[in-house]
Design a protein that fits this description.
WH-like_DNA-bd_sf, 6% strand, mainly alpha, Arc Repressor Mutant, subunit A, elongated, WH_DNA-bd_sf
Length: 209
């Protein structure tokens, strides 16, 4: 039985199902299309994914090519089994209910351990970085739509754009509230919270304390 496809395997197999490509062309196409923001890839990761897909019978080598003095490059294509595997894999990812664990929420959960100035500095750096990503992504979407690419091909980028817009706005709100004192900082949770939690354990989660 073919093992479950990883995110990298899905994007690589999708490109090889479009047309025959060598692994470095796959990587270049991922970067050109902006898909490198979807999965963490580098040329080595792409080559590894192609090797695994070949072992699983989802892609096959169809020839080699040489460009100048560079080493020969093997070209691959999706097999019939690979073509058949894409649909179920993409459907599974669309309906996926597994929790996604990210680093940022861990930082937020433990931010009260830090001084307010340290938290504000870190969040400000994140805000500026995400705002720059937001501007770049918005420009890229506008560019490809203006060139005639149908909206259905940029739904992933559109979702990311909405999430970035909301996160930047949320970061602005938190930074403002930290600056003007609306968001009180310092000290442990109030004793009244612990008292209330002991009388309503079913309605209050385990955090904090």
């Amino acid at each position: 039985m073919v093992r479950t496809l990883t995110p990298v395997a899905v994007v690589v197999l999708g490109l090889l199902d479009e047309r025959d490509r060598h692994p470095y062309d796959v990587f270049q196409t991922l970067v050109e299309r902006g898909d490198a923001r979807l999965v963490r890839v580098n040329p080595g990761a792409v080559y590894h994914a192609v090797e695994r897909l070949e072992r699983d019978g989802l892609v096959e080598a169809v020839g080699t090519e040489r460009c100048g003095n560079r080493p020969e490059r093997t070209t691959y294509r999706a097999t019939a089994a690979g073509h058949a595997a894409i649909g179920p894999a993409v459907t599974a990812y669309l309906a996926d209910e597994r929790p996604a664990y990210a680093d940022f929420p861990v930082g937020l959960a433990h931010a009260p351990r830090l001084p307010a100035t340290d938290v504000a500095d870190a969040l400000a750096r994140r805000r500026d970085r995400e705002a720059a990503r937001l501007d770049g992504l918005r420009a890229r979407i506008d560019e490809v739509l203006a060139l005639g690419l149908p909206r259905r091909f940029v739904l992933d980028a559109e979702r990311e754009l909405v999430l970035l817009e909301r996160e930047v706005q949320w970061l602005d709100d938190v930074l403002r509230d930290l600056a003007d004192g609306t968001l009180a900082w310092g000290g442990p949770p109030p004793a009244a919270f612990f008292a209330a939690r002991t009388t309503a354990p079913d309605r209050v989660g385990a955090r904090p304390g």
